[in-house]
User: Fold these one by one.
Assistant:
Number 1:
Amino acid sequence: MLTFLERLVRAKTIEEVWSNLTRQMAGYGFDRLLYGCTTFKTERSIGDPADHMMLSNHPQEYIERFINGGMFINGPMVRWAIDNEGSCSWDRIRELEARGALSDAEKAVVAFNRRHGVTAGYSLSFPSLSSRTKGGLALVARRGMTQEEVNGIWERHGRGIEVICNVAHLKIMSLPFRGLHRQLTDRQREVLEWVGEGKTIQDIATIMGLTPATVEKHLRLARNTLDVETTAQAVLKASVQKQLFVISG
């Protein structure tokens, strides 16, 4: 575990973190992972899906329907992760079924997962870094494994698995994510960085060798890209998404 954590700490990209995490979890019997995080959660919503960070090594067919199709929102364990912190056995799904406590949408998710061999596993909900942030990870057991077998793995290794996954989550949160739907261009990022430094439009125009009108255009496009109303909101959102002051390479 120490060797793995050292690799995680030294990782420079999210892809590197994710590759190490999936290999490590496969060693415990979890060969499919689904990670999700939002930094724009409210009391009534987990935020715009376009702002979510989603990572998975599930087959593409599954990803298209479950993630890109938005089915995950109605997942019983996703709902648990939003409302809780820590770890939870997927025994919870069977318990909800037995009590008749699943909604029709949740039943559809459970049935879809079973058709794709997503039947046993554990879910993690990470401690929130702020009231707007929520992250979670679904660990899916290999096909053919029972939930009882997964529970046995957790009894033996659960504490270590939780530490590994929490460190991976914190590392991911510290790195820029290139897969965002709302990715700033180099010019948009640069003008926002100068705004973040306290520079005026005229200052930025002089520094960048542009006209004030061109600076205004880049700021307007940055606001549009990030789907916000003000430049201050754009600076905040881009900063939260680790799009500002990025070290090249």
Note: The chain has eleven helices and five strands.
Number 2:
Amino acid sequence: MVSIQNLHFAYRRKKVFTGLSLDLKAGHIYGLLGKNGTGKSTLLRNIGGLLFPDQGKLEVMGFDPGKREPAFLQDVFMVAEEFFLPNISLEKLVAYNAPFYPRFSKSQFDGYIREFDIPTDSTIQNMSYGQKKKTLISFGLACNTSLLLMDEPTNGLDIMSKSQFRKVMAGALDENKCIIISTHQVKDLENLIDRITIIDHGTILFDQTVDQITTKLNFKISFDHEEIKTALYSESSLKGNAIITRNSEGEESKLDLEMLYKAIVTNRDSIQSVFN
């Protein structure tokens, strides 16, 4: 689906990527995690053909995104963090934009609008920021593109809206679709993504599937001082110490994505050594 080899990109003199390589396949929801300003949005824009690599090879669904061929553009949709929607009704939004996407489904769009509790009798500019974002997400999902790029989609959403988002996204994936979600709000995606890529300053710090992570790592609360001392990562909590250890006995463990993210950023080598 997406093949990136030795990607180099810079904004004038500011280097973002120097030799980044990554392969993403259909049938998965990928979490692209990292702090703001680490290159997540830049990577999505390169994949979507909105920015152009300085060097390296980038292929998406067999296309060079930079050529922006119609067959490519009609099969990729990006929900940007910053966006503008005109002051029109939902009906006109669909009428003006849906023809660009051959697999757009009006019934799906209406279903997402109902799921997100978006008022259908209001023009877009009279909606709140969260309602506008949910409208854009609904449209992007209804386009049924093979590649869906989402940049910080939960920014501006309240707690209930985030829950709605996770529910909608969980039902949107199929074996022919690749969804890449970029975020720094890692807790919002904990039960949604099945592969985690952590990026920092244009470098991939970590790239593993959730199954691989929970097979090799154990996330738990411990009161054992020796266990806490030898843990790969530890942080104090109200109920003891939250720790990450090697899963040497094949225990079942629920992924704590936020703790994993902090462990990778602060102590990458100890975590990465488990997977080498």
Note: Residues 257-275 form the longest helix (19 residues).
Number 3:
Amino acid sequence: MLTTRRVDAYHALTVVAPGIAEPFRPGHFVALAVGGPQSSMLTRRAFSVHDVKPDYGGTVEFVFTVRGPGTAWLAERRARDTLDLVGPLGRPFPLPRDPVTCVLVGGEYGSAMLFGLADALLQRGCRIDFVLGAASADRVFGAMRARRMGETTTLTTEDGSLGVRGRVTDVLPGVIADARADVVYACGPMAMLRGVTAVSVEFDIPVQVAVEEAMACGIGTCMTCVLPVIGDDGVTRMVRACSEGPVFRGERVRFEDVGTIPFDALGAPGSPGGGARHVS
């Protein structure tokens, strides 16, 4: 491991991992084994990637908050400690072929994933507008970097301690209209993604969301991260966020049914041909 630092309410770890940095694309994530010899966890923990520098020995930085014993152990790591990580994993963000206007929406440390995406979009001549939000000022991630990169940056906090009081969905319609946006990219809590998708659908523009689902293995084996997604054929399937995602077309995700198996999903109990559980 190279460095560890605090970023307001979050921890940022940078590791030397050229095998991950080289094939990385914005939207990919990594899965880490957490815990020491006496405290190792059975499953890995998934983390979205904030920054990758293939030219500097192949460094990968990811951002997280302490939520339990695994991330608490990770927060105590120091320079020269070694970490066991696998990546890059998942399906990355699709990039537009032509220069377009893009609104990037981030909630809390979900914003970390958006900056590699912003770099890639800028390289393609796209315009970038940021909307970043959180409960309070110390939980808004990347505000200064967003201001440097974006044509505009709009910040929201639920307590009013930074930017506009409210949520990202309160200001998003105005940002989309003012920028004449062509596409929305978003990463953050599921409730936020549901709201961002609803706004984007209202404006009839595509929306790509990176979902935050609990992932145990990160490689599509354990089935803990399944969620209902509508396929090209109109059929709802329970798909794995770690392998078929984490990036999905927002309007295809049945956010209101996340955490359940909808009765009309392929293979759902009671549906035609249904069994106890089918995952495709």
Note: The mean pLDDT is 88.
